[in-house]
Amino acid sequence: MPRPRRIGVTMRVVPGGDAPVRDVARAPRDASLHDPRAPRDAPSRDPRAPRDLFPDDWRATLAAILPDAAWWPLPNAGDAAVQRFAELRLDALVLAGGNDLGSCPRRDHTERSLLLHCAARGIPVLGVCRGLQLVQRVFGGAIARAPQAHDAGRAHGIAVIDARARRLLGAERFTAPSYHRFGVPAGALAPALDAWAISDDGWVEMLAHARLAIVAVQWHPERPLPCPEVARRLLRGFADAC
């Protein structure tokens, strides 16, 4: 019987005392991947210090859409996170959202190192929101300040412009809310990246690397969407590529 697919998910940084997300020390994970050292990988125990936290919305979404996959929260431990990724023999990486690029240097370094590790080995990567922006930066592109409406949680139209994305998502158009202050204008992608979906106001909503197994979306498939089937197909398709 084949072993479950093992997916690493990066963690966002929140101020001390922030409560809407679950601490890595309490985050549920597949028993086959349980490592009693994991809680000690989290940063300072000082309740006033910023902490690595695993969002509850990812926990619930992975359990609902990928119940057959084993997943592992990856603390912001710099190059040590890459070592842990390799030790656990993870099959794929999710670069989760939260935190603007540049606001958490340790997270920036951790995720950049993980992305480069996966790119060099052909390991599938899914970037979400911030993750899309990181992929753009790492492959030589720039990000720009997005209109204020993009940070308001408002639903907006998205056109799926690539045939591969249409097959993956099962849609030519859908709507999704925005929760980001920065993004990638259409036409400004790094040379190695292709636009797969564009918002009605001209921002990249989905991209893919031309050669590597790297796909990224600007919306949040782990949050409730007007088109939940799009999120389900995206995550199932990503898992099937592992």
Describe the model.
The protein has one domain: 3-Layer(aba) Sandwich (Rossmann fold), CATH 3.40.50. It has 242 residues and is of the alpha/beta class. It contains six helices and 14 strands. Helix 2 crosses helix 3 (105-121). The strands form three sheets. Strands 5-1-6-7-14-13-12-9-10 form a nine-stranded mixed beta sheet, sandwiched between helices. A three-stranded antiparallel beta sheet has the order 2-4-3. A hairpin with a 4-residue loop joins strand 12 and strand 13 (204-209). The longest helix is centred in the middle third of the chain and has 17 residues, at 105-121.
State the main characteristics:
single chain; 242 residues; alpha/beta; Rossmann fold; nine-stranded mixed β-sheet; three-stranded antiparallel β-sheet; 6 helices; globular
Strand arrangement in the largest pleated sheet: 5-1-6-7-14-13-12-9-10
Rg calc? 17 Å
| Helix proportion range | 25-40%
List low-confidence stretches: 19-43
Number of helices: 6
User: Structural class, please?
Assistant: alpha/beta
CATH superfamily: Class I glutamine amidotransferase (GATase) domain
Average pLDDT score? 85
Total count of domains = 1
One letter per element, helices H and strands E, the order comes to: EEEEHEHEHEHEEHEEEEEH
- The CATH topology name reads Rossmann fold
Per CATH, the architecture is: 3-Layer(aba) Sandwich
- What's the overall geometry? globular
